[in-house]
Amino acid sequence: MENNLAIRKIEGERRLIFRFPYDPSLVDVMRKLEGRRWHSSPKFWTANICISNLNRVKKYFPFINEVEEEYNILSCSNFDKSLLEGLYPFQKQGVRWLQSRNGRGLLADEMGNGKSIQTIGYLKINPDIRPALIVCPASLKLNWQREIKKWMNDDAEVVNGSSGKLDQGITIINYDILYRYIDRLRGKISVLVLDEVHKIKSNKTRTTKSAMKLGKTVDRIIALSGTPIINRPVEFFNTLNLISPAQFPSYWKYAMRYCDAHKDYWGWKFDGASNIGELREKINPLMLRRLKKDVLQDLPDKTVSILPFQINKVNYNRKEAELTAWIKESKLSDKGAKINALAKLEALKQVAVSAKLDSVQEWVNNFLTENGKLVLFTTHHFTVDWVMQNFKQFNPVKLDGRDSITQKQKAVDTFQNDSKCRLFVGNIKAAGVGITLSAASTCCFLELGWSPGEHAQAMDRLHRIGQKNSVNVYYMIAEGTIEEQIANLLDEKMKVLDAILDGKETDESSLLMNLLEDYKNNSGN
């Protein structure tokens, strides 16, 4: 028997099919393929249809050119490739994979690889498949809306409370309120996107029951998670059951086989892991997962994103009105007035950041559930203290102006070398220079400073010698507040904060005066 490679339908899905006489070196190659699976009767290997797999096996199969040609036809015939302009090659591959599975699968790329962008790409090339519903944590709703606008030039509806219209386009809703809409949604959704799908791991929650009830009525389900299986496979059953109910129909059978089932005084326990190799083989066709290290050649050194958060603006609006009234009556040319103005602006910034802390907490918890380490930059002591108090489970360390040189170095060393220390929080000025934080590849700015250069220096604490990953930078912005105004002054286009990225220095007093002038003009004076 000679080596043979083809593309065939297996269990309703197109796959690469490999047949060859036993060869240990070729078996090792098979084990490195994406989505590989061994079929014992008859004996053959299958794997995902993707260019990386084809490149790995080129020298082993004589008719690879014919298969590559078929791959190109499959990859490109279903949609206009120009629709995916701006995506990285591996992201385009992710869209093709979703297309090949008819919009039903688990996108499990490591955080930072753009799972949401690939999902939006699928929605973009399939404009007739609507309505589409995106279910995500509340802290991510505005980010989804922003990305859909950017990549599709489409206006998605964000549902809050119980007032959603749920039209025929794209709707975004958070898990917490999904239950209110189940009766209106069942049987009417064409595409269901479940972001941070580990949110439905527990069968006891209303969130899970709502998502499962809705998912049973939808043909296309795209689940997103950076860590689909951690240490407890039982938490992953609901996702697998939604994506492939034929393969994973029974919770009991799944738990007995893969969750180290054992009985104690209180009854059955499914809190372990067993037969993991077998489970991974079954899951591989349903899941696409790429780590950052696998796609590093496609990624830029740094990626900057804006995370917009909705806030309750009652208190903020009152404080802003007080500031506007004060500015209207003040002579800003006086030195004393400028000092008072800065204090009042800083006070308003604190009101804005306080209003978004619940969303920040949700986002950070979600991030650290899936990923390694995170750096948070702030400007106020109260924000540093809040982080230290609210994320104790991640063994945080801090660095601000209140710390001695010895304390600062100890915080850096702990974060860099202790795997249990997952979170570093620092003041932008105090922690923005002279230290290395390369143990993390993601940082967030909870608050904005007054100088673009401060931000550039702070993010470069991660982008140092020894950094093996592309660095992701997030700006957490309270929508419709002074934070947006400061960001707009730092970068008028507000796309990727170019001024901050380039580190172009802006005169602080000039920036403050521009902000004061904005308030003065808005007051009608």
Observed structural traits:
525 residues; alpha/beta; Rossmann fold; 3 domains; 7-stranded parallel beta sheet; 6-stranded parallel beta sheet
Radius of gyration from the alpha-carbon trace, in angstroms? 26 Å
Might you state the CATH topology name of the largest domain?
Answer: Rossmann fold
Low-confidence stretches: 493-507
Can you tell me the overall shape?
Answer: globular
Strand content: 15-25%
Measured distance between first and last alpha carbons: 87 Å
- CATH H level, superfamily name of the largest domain: P-loop containing nucleotide triphosphate hydrolases
Count of domains: 3
Largest sheet: 7 strands, parallel
Structural class: alpha/beta
Determine the number of helices (DSSP H or I, runs of at least 4 residues): 20
Chain oligomer state: single chain
Q: How many distinct beta strands?
A: 19
State the CATH class of the largest domain: Alpha Beta
CATH architecture label name of the largest domain: 3-Layer(aba) Sandwich
Strand order of the largest sheet: 7-8-6-9-10-5-13
Report helical residue fraction: 40-55%
Average pLDDT, all residues: 84
